[in-house]
Amino acid sequence: MNHSAVETNSQPIPAGRRGRDSGLRHLARQLAKSPTAMFGLAIIVCVVFFGFAGEWVAPFDPTQADFAKKLLPPLTEGHLLGTDQLGRDILSRIMAGTRISLIIGISTVIAAGSAGTAIGIVAGYFRGWIDVVLMRIVDVTLSFPFILLVLVINAVLGTGLRNIIISLVLAGWVVYARVVRSEVLALREKEFILSCVATGVPRWEIIVKHIVPNLFTPIIVLSSLQIATYIIAEASISFLGFGVQPPQPAWGNMLSEGKDYIFSAWWLITFPGVAIVLTALGVNLFGDWLRDVLDPEMKGK
Predict the structure, then answer these.
(1) pLDDT tens across 181-238, in order?
(2) C-alpha distances in angstroms, 54 versus 46, 47, 97, 174, 233?
(3) Where are the domains of the chain?
(4) By three-state DSSP, how is residue 265 classified?
(5) In this predicted model, what pLDDT tens digit does every residue of 92-130 receive, in sequence order?
(6) 34-56+83-298: which CATH number, 1.10.3720.10, 3.20.20.140, 3.90.1150.10, 3.10.350.10?
């Protein structure tokens, strides 16, 4: 028998890897027990696929007009969801708009989450006048309706994908700041933090090694729910004409262009609307499950 082979194959698995594997298996088992979470995840997978592969699987060019085929109803001449007032394929335009929604949703969550988390940590850990100033800024920002604030900022910055993301970040970071601050206020009173302070551990080390790792769960849960909020917000401002501009397809401006044909060509607003609803539903269903799994205190509420 080859003893070296046996010894090689029987090498112990590192504890960190075992923990990650068992954690992933636990999440997979919990996911399999939740039909609503599975449904939400299936929607998310489809949205991501069409968002990043839509360019190759779309049946037609989403910006190519064909006036000879304008306002074709669904299932006509190869157009599964029909065509719009310029003869452009609705399905292809929805696929193209999916990428816009994903880019805006994910980019805004990353930027707003990073800024809000940093501000929440500073306010919650250092307290004092820094906390007072930052939280008053948060209170003032939250006093404005979210969509109205986004519209005002976007009107100042101008239209375009980059400015939409900036306006959503400037209006959305406050949610992260408030949640993270409350978590940090609770963490800083824990025994392991008090022990670090008593033994003279530097503040930056306490924040990086002990505070930040304990914030991952609430941030992940909040981010999973905020993505749907930002996608709906983008559709709203594009519908009002302040967001993504034609001919670039986006779900919001598709609704805006189709509102004048609501009685004569119902499919122009129905299918983009269904795309928005299904995406928000899928993200919220999966986010709710993620919250219940990662935050045991929320179970049963």
Answers:
(1) 999 999 988 888 888 888 888 888 889 888 998 898 889 889 988 999 999 998 999 8
(2) 11, 10, 9, 34, 22
(3) 34-56+83-298
(4) coil
(5) 999 999 988 999 999 999 999 999 999 999 999 998 899
(6) 1.10.3720.10
